[in-house]
């Protein structure tokens, strides 16, 4: 069984076992309310608390899950879990209030006003309000209007939600306080989730950055709005970084400590230095060219499974669009990539082809074929339709395909690959839909 299958089996087992235990606790506790509304509300509360522990584990960026499944798929799970938390956070208090309202024979609003005067309930309602705010700003329309930095900052409210949720459970929990065993299980589950969060989001990054002491070694403009930052430090080989992976970068003094950006390595790591290349589209990336040599660097990672370790064969197709060329260029430099390599680089014009000189030199050294696909997409210029891509790469179904670029390009390529029946195990995409 492959590593991804093992990881998925482990995740499935974890969910099934815990949901079974939660239902057992609910049944053992007996009727916790005076009517069906209250019963449903209490059960939804257990679901909500469990979903929050799952969410904490997802944003903890556990290395094992990242390597086996990939940060993009984990972020997809984070998004789905987030919407589950949202609906449970809305439905849980709604049913609880309906239960009390029916029992006391007063209106829903009057019951809600009375309950909200109790501190544990008030904290829970504040947590619900924060969840609604975060989800509202995460829907596609709102997300497009926010910078990555602003979106990431808003999501830090989820840590406040976790704290409020735990306090609310301490005062309001009943189903998991029936026996010592249920208490051990429930708080052990929370301890694992919070422990993983603290370990991999705080302790490990702080320890690594103290050890490696990374600094800016050089800042090299690549074009009008693209810049490369070379980073050096101590014992960088101990990071275990691979071509195609990315780090979360902070530049103390350049931006606020909570502002972080995911940038891929644009050169294969050599154990002595790291290089990122970014286009100035946000506050952080736009100001990278002003970084002084010697400036401190705080990097969290490496993350991502967009590496040649995921290949199922030896023939490879690398597809890049725009600034998505950075991990592709890194992969092309990987000494273990092999020689049967084709690179497709999609840009509007030759002037937009970032790192093209390096790509050509690497392709020449490796014996790879490089195709630069230029021009605006139109009815007569659509290189990634099934017919056009198959004509350009006749043996595409026998190749592992790595694709990174703007969402529209990546989606078009993935749709075409499915149409051409390229096996799923041979398709690898870097989407950068990163959970904060």
Describe this structure in words.
This protein has 15 helices and 11 strands. The protein starts with a helix and ends in a 6-residue tail after the last strand. Strand 8 (341-346), helix 13 (356-366) and strand 9 form a beta-alpha-beta unit. It has a 5-stranded parallel beta sheet with strand order 9-8-7-10-11, with helices on both faces. It has a 3-stranded antiparallel beta sheet with strand order 1-2-5, with no helix packed on it. Helix 4 (71-104) crosses helix 6. It folds into 3 domains: 3-208; 213-303, Translation factors (Elongation Factor Tu (Ef-tu), domain 3); 312-430, 3-Layer(aba) Sandwich (Rossmann fold). The chain is of the alpha/beta class. This is Putative ferric reductase. Residues 209-309 form the FAD-binding FR-type domain. Pfam families: FAD_binding_8, Ferric_reduct, NAD_binding_1. The chain crosses the membrane at residues 7-28, 40-60, 80-101, 121-142, 154-171, 183-204. Keywords: 2Fe-2S, FAD, Flavoprotein, Iron, Iron-sulfur, Membrane, Metal-binding, Oxidoreductase, Transmembrane, Transmembrane helix.
Which key features would you list for this structure?
single chain; 436 residues; alpha/beta; Elongation Factor Tu (Ef-tu), domain 3; Rossmann fold; 3 domains; 5-stranded parallel beta sheet
H and E order:
HHHHHHHHHHEEEEEHEEHEHEHEHE
Can you give the helix content as a percent range?
40-55%
Q: What structural class do you assign from the helix and strand content?
A: alpha/beta
Strand percentage: 5-15%
Distance between the termini: 31 Å
Specify the biggest β-sheet: 5 strands, parallel
- How many domains, as an integer? 3
Q: Could you give the order of strands across the largest sheet?
A: 9-8-7-10-11
Shape: elongated
Q: Compute the gyration radius: what is it? A: 25 Å
Poorly predicted runs: none
Q: Output the number of helix runs.
A: 15
Rounded mean pLDDT score: 87
Q: Tell me how many strands there are.
A: 11
GO molecular function: 2 iron, 2 sulfur cluster binding; flavin adenine dinucleotide binding; metal ion binding; oxidoreductase activity
Cofactor: FAD
Main location: membrane
GO cellular component, one term: membrane
